[in-house]
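Annotated sample (chain length 127).
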Amino acid sequence: MKKTINAPKAPAAVGPYVHAVEANGLIFTSGQIGLIPETGELQNGIEAQTHQVFKNLQAVLEAAGSDLDCAVKTSVFLDDINDFGKVNEIYAEYFKGETPARSCVEVAKLPKGALVEIEVIAVKKEA
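Output written by the structure step:
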């Protein structure tokens, strides 16, 4: 069984997709970039975009009945692998204790000229 999730506190999708899909107790988020939900504009710079990505992911996971503490896998896409250290520092602020498995790659280009995009697979919070 599959359920689509649209998060009212996250930025609108920039394509024909939903914020997340829940299937068999797992939540698969779409990639989030550093868009400000209220304006649809990108934050400026890698640090601000990375923080905004995590705020957006938190909003999506919350709407799905989960949170970052329930993440089991993340995928990080960077416009420039030289930003790896900066993104890593910010990433560590959001994942304490048991961290999820992770992939991190440089890509040729991200939507809207974003510098970073992150997607998450998480388990649903236990009630």
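Annotation: The CA atoms of residues 3 and 22 lie 5 Å apart.
Annotation: The chain has a mean pLDDT of 96.
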